[in-house]
Amino acid sequence: MNVEDGKTLNDGPVAISVSGANAEPQGNGFRHVPDRLHGSLRRVLSSWESLLLVVAIAIFILNTFASPYFLDPWNLSDATFNFTEKAMIAFAMALLIVAGEIDLSVASIIALASTMMGLAVQYGAGTPALVAIGLGTGLTCGAFNGLLVTRLGLPSIVATIGTMSLFRGIAYIVLGDQAFSGYPASFAWFGQGYVGWVITVEMVLFAFAAIAYALVLHKSAFGRAVYAIGNNSTAALFSGVRVPRVKFILFLLTGLMSGIAAICLTSRLGSTRPSIAFGWELEIVTMVVLGGVSILGGSGSIPGVVLAALVMGMVTFGFGLLNVPGIVMSIFVGILLISVIALPRIVQQLVHARAARHRKGDPTRLGSAQS
Amino acid sequence: MNTVANTDTAHTLRTLLVRLSEIVRSRDAILAMVLIILVALVATRAPQFATPGRLAGVFNDSSILIMLALGQMLVILSRCIDLSMAANLALVGMVVAMTNAAAPGIPIVFLTIMAILLGAMLGAINGLLVWKLDIPPIVVTLGTLTIFRGMIFLISDGRWINAHEMSKPFKALPRTSFLGLPVLSWIAIVAVLGAVILVNRTTFGRALFAVGGNPDAAVYTGIDVGRTRCLAFVASGAISGLCGYLWVSRYAVAYVDVASGFELDVVAACVIGGISIAGGIGTVAGAVMGALFLGVIKNALPVVDISPFWQLAISGSAIIVAVALNARSERRVGRIILKTAEKGT
Questions:
Q1: For chain A, what is the domain count?
Q2: Cβ separation of B143 and A157 shorter than 8 Å?
């Protein structure tokens, strides 16, 4: 039962549309898996990543023309802060979503990890201890989520809505309306330090995480197992994949990345409030979905997520330079999110409609999705 | 003869007992008991909490959450989810508040109808995207959530509409007392009754369960899955719109972040109320009690001298316990032998 849960969550609309040619609803063919069906769409938009790349370049050029301050290396370096922390979590979340699960508690894990670090500071903990506490809290929270999903067989979306309230709730119990600060000076290195010239520590962590997760997902047996679970967890189970174990590790990784993000964010802000990183979970999911990861599981890639992070970061930065408030940027991201998924489907429907006309008739008797 | 009669009575008695134990063990009964125990526990520390007047106050305070939970229930029953409800509420609330501030003369009835229609329209956007383009509901509503929030900023320029800008009748409606209860409570009661009829006594209600229980089987039964889901989104949108007006008039303020994050409270109320996130399982009573559970906790904490900062952690734990208990009873006994419904191409 628990292997089914993730899959049955939201597979409603697509379950109906599954038939021969369009069994792969997203259409963003993933090259390393040869045993998948290719929709006709693959030829229309060769791949999701190239589409995103075009969008990213277009935004970059637009930004360059829109503001003379955009191409300044220091400005660009500063701009990376608005996506590096989120993107680090997004990589782990991408694996989780590919496997057909989701973790909505990531932002609350940041809040709890940050609170625990702040608490430790009050007792005179040094930087190494703080890092250990941050990572430890992240791992513990991830393990708790993982146990709820794999041991108790709870659907991850509701289990993590629960832990989302629980983790942040604990932060509120500890902190109330107070704030922790007074982090040691050496702790500031993670969120404010530079490795050289304009390269921030966070950028290095981001790049390292991107490469590590890309290797895990695309080049390892573990990554294959993740895809297998996302496409058909029952089949994966019968072919020897230890489904619960893989899922548990994915939750653990997501918790770990949230812990790392908590260290970076806390170090950057220099203080902790229980409302820290509020609402990030939805932004991170948006980033992952924009990156071409199917929310239904089974397909997606890390390069896509990297590009989505860059797109979202550049849009925020560019709009910021033009004095456009962040909330207006969110409209753009919302429209982008829906349209990048809607457009291929509209194309797909048009192609199908034309094919149907060519075949003379066979009206869409059972078709609810075709108007 | 005698023995036959005896076995007969024994049989009826046994079926009666089985029925009774079924009712007692039903999710709704357990939840009702938990609610009563919760109120009783609070009453031991603070007896004034269990008075009818105070409980009516708790109900009134939970009214908006109850209505939203009912709307969310319709969507979840059809195996979808609507994360845009709170943003829809805030957007409609802002539009209504701005309309009132600009033209105080417009009658409140008209504004209320406008709020419902506008909300339904926003819900229809979600519904059509889910229906016509087959986009997963969580993605659609995640997108519209951010778009609606952004729209509020665009139309209001980030400005707050404060109490003094709203007309007196605009603010008075939810507070007006009618037969001993505020109008807000009455609207919630009417919404609950309406939901009971809609879910249990109409073909749409039955279609919701069919679609959520097994979309493929629903297609073969002749139910238009997409249309049913779209209607569920329209209904949840209409409720969000109505609650948008009620919210801004009750709290007498409208700004961009009204009800920010409330969408997950609504989902939480449904989950605690035993509505299966996988669709097809749930009752109106469950949704109402799930919302009341959160409402009681919110109102009881200050009364029993627990810091309100405990609220979030308690409701989080309640969600996890509720889901864990429900997951046990939701395990399907049979095997689904029906193949995926094919779409004629």
A1: 1
A2: no
